[in-house]
Design brief:
By secondary structure, the chain is mostly helical. The protein has helices at about 15-20, 50-65, 70-80, 95-100, 105-115, 135-140, 145-150, 165-175, 175-185, 195-210, 210-220, 230-235, 240, 250-260, 275-290, 290-300, 315-325, 325-335, 350-355, 360-365, 375-380, 390-395, 395-400, 405-425, 440-445, 450-475, 495-525, 530-565, 570-605, 620-630. The radius of gyration is 34 Å and the shape is flat.
Length: about 625
């Protein structure tokens, strides 16, 4: 077997056996030295003795897996030596096998009894790949099992396994709880057995796995690790961790109430974000220790660290942040080095061009805060001759994923196109790229199918509305119980439930007719761009809302008719039918709720997507804070 190297990084999706058994994979990380690796041949096995293997080893293995202490205890009482014998070539002893199981009362009891039976030295037994049972428990995130073993042997966190110490493998594949526990028990990564490579790799994986609280603690204990710029590469791909979380309605109401009663609200709540604190530490170290040219080179290089091959990017750090919509990341960088806003990729794209391509309005809105520099950015073109307006004319997968319905997607794409068009100089709006296309021609070609898809969807809604109109109209003349043959009036006309039946049927008829007429007005409209931007979302919302009302009223009409017929006896029949009739209404509401939210946002939020009143790049608070820090 070829040697394993210390450059190897375990994948998040590997099982424990795969982590134990991997042999020839190597992934480049920054400044990590190779650690020679050989197999451990000192662990004895009983594979050659078929009788003992079948009668003792196999039952003990099964008992260790499921946590059957009664069976395991009876075997170990007969053969105490089996406690240090390998039961599996890949895993190892009974304890190695037991710690791979999920933590339950049964398995924890098994591990506790087995550890009590073992000596301190036996807890340090290493399997074929030089991993102790404690190492495997750390890799699997089994904190309680690790604590049981630690109570008996405090040296276990210091015993290196397959090229990694237990804390490092826990950061790669474990959980936040086991990482925090091991960090304290590993003397905060101090000691001769810890190398700088170990510390760097542990820190990087803590950041990759979103263990930001542990990462901050590591940087506090080891300030020199702040010079590892690979952390910036990882943070650039984590917009959800760094950006301020959008507050829901309840939170906004609560904070408004606190302010009304003069309760103290932290003015910089976003600074409490651990990922943002981490970014400020790393970027602050870079700006204090590196020249601008060195910072540009660092931001210009391809990423050198990734714990998962699927997220390795070939783009530069700043552009990766723009692609993922990492607004706060970009803001922190631009506050220290404003010239980075003109930073271009090999294709001639600035971070604002990338943000427009992927429809991240938070980054695009920074153009309104940088003054005249936005003119220079708008004049930039890529290798294909596309300016920013050409790029917004291309369809966006991100926008398609976030928007329900082709019609609303067309509305958002038009909104973006019109916004960027205002920003561009007039002569650039008709500029042609290397394919001879103007921005509007490119936009029309890219979105030509959205109109047909939107019309097809509305035709389907019209079919549903038409069916409900037909049913509601027919029901109005086929009332439950029929008519009095002498006077021609309904039999149950004096029944209160019959009145509910009539009103519900009328509501169903009127609302479905309204929905049908609204969708028909959309289909017969000239489909002007301005209609798609403003009128269409309003009409769609009215059409879908009235369609929902008609479905709900139709179900009420159906249910009430049974109450009319079974009013005096078998009352449980209409009650049961009414419960079942509510299911389609609930399903319709749940399925269409995302669409209604998108429609509401298209109607009202569209006016606030661009030119926000609240500036986040340059504010008075930031400048005052900087001045205070300068004179402290």
């Amino acid at each position: 077997m070829d040697p394993l190297t210390g450059k190897e990084i375990a994948r998040d999706h590997l099982s424990l056996e795969e982590i134990d058994g991997r042999s020839q994979r190597s992934i480049e990380t920054e400044n990590l030295t190779e650690i020679p690796y050989t197999q451990n041949d000192s662990l004895p096995y009983l594979f050659g003795n078929r009788v003992d293997y079948s009668n003792l080893v196999v039952p003990l293995y099964e008992a260790s897996i499921i946590g059957d202490w009664e069976t395991a205890n009876s075997i170990l009482n007969k053969r105490r030596d089996l406690i240090s014998v390998g039961l599996s070539r890949n895993l190892g002893t009974a304890l190695h096998v037991a710690v791979t199981a999920e933590e339950t009362k049964i398995t924890l009891n098994f591990v506790k009894n087995l550890v009590n039976m073992m000596t301190v030295e036996e807890l340090e037994i290493q399997n074929k790949y030089w991993n102790t049972a404690f190492w495997i428990a750390s890799a699997g995130g089994n904190t309680k099992m690790a604590m049981i073993m630690m109570e008996k042997n405090r040296r276990l966190p210091d015993i290196r396994g397959t090229a990694y110490l237990p804390l490092t493998i826990a950061a790669i594949t474990g959980t936040n709880n086991i990482v925090k526990y091991l960090y304290e028990k590993s003397q905060r990564m101090r000691g001769d057995h810890w190398t700088n490579d170990d510390r760097n790799l542990t820190l990087l994986h803590c950041v990759e796995r979103d263990f930001f609280d542990v990462a901050l603690q590591i940087l506090e204990d080891h300030p020199k690790l702040a010079g590892n710029m690979s952390i910036l590469e990882i943070l650039s791909r984590k917009p959800d961790a760094i950006n301020e979380v959008e507050k829901n309605l309840f939170t906004r109401i609560k904070e408004a109430s606190f302010r009304f009663f003069r309760s103290k609200v932290h003015p910089n709540a976003e600074d409490d974000n651990d990922a943002l604190k981490l970014l400020k530490i790393i970027w602050g170290h870079a700006t204090q220790t590196m020249s601008f040219d060195e910072i540009e080179d660092m931001l210009d290089r391809p990423p050198t660290f990734a714990a998962n091959e699927s997220i390795i990017e070939s783009s530069r750090i700043l552009l990766v942040a723009a692609k993922t919509g990492n607004t706060r990341f970009i803001v922190e960088l631009l506050r220290s080095y404003p010239d980075l806003m003109l930073f271009e990729s090999e294709d001639g794209l600035t971070l604002f061009h990338v943000a427009v391509m992927h429809r991240h309005q938070g980054i695009y809105n920074l153009l309104y805060e940088i003054g005249g520099s936005n003119n220079d950015i708008c004049l930039s073109i890529d290798k294909s001759g596309n300016n920013m307006l050409h790029l917004v004319g291309k369809s966006s997968k991100e926008m398609a994923a976030k928007t329900s319905g082709a019609s609303l997607l067309m509305q958002r794409e038009l909104l973006w196109f019109k916004e960027v068009e205002k920003m561009m100089p007039p002569y650039m709006r008709e500029a042609r790229n290397h394919d001879g296309q103007t921005p509007y021609e490119l936009f029309s070609k890219e979105n030509e199918d959205l109109l047909s898809r939107g019309l097809k969807w509305m035709k389907d809604c019209m079919v549903v509305a038409t069916l409900i109109v037909t049913i509601a109209f027919a029901v109005a003349f086929t009332v439950p119980g029929g008519y009095n043959q002498e006077f021609g009036i309904p039999v149950f006309i004096h029944d209160r439930t019959f009145l509910v039946f009539v009103i519900a049927d009328a509501i169903s008829l009127f609302s479905s007719s309204t929905s049908l007429l609204v969708f028909l007005s959309i289909l017969t409209s000239p489909h002007d761009q301005r209609d798609f931007m403003y009128s269409l979302p309003r009409k769609l919302m009215i059409g879908v809302l009235t369609l929902f009302i008609s479905v709900a009223a139709m179900m009420v009409t159906f249910s009430v008719s049974f109450f009319v017929l079974y009013d005096n006896r078998l009352k449980w029949v209409p009650v049961l039918i009414a419960l079942f009739a509510s299911i389609p209404v609930i399903v319709f509401a749940v399925m269409q709720f995302p669409l209604m939210v998108d429609m509401f946002r298209s109607m009202y939020d569209s006016h606030y997507l661009f030119k926000p009143k609240k500036h986040i790049l340059y504010t008075t608070k930031v400048r005052l804070h900087s001045i205070k820090m300068l004179y402290v």
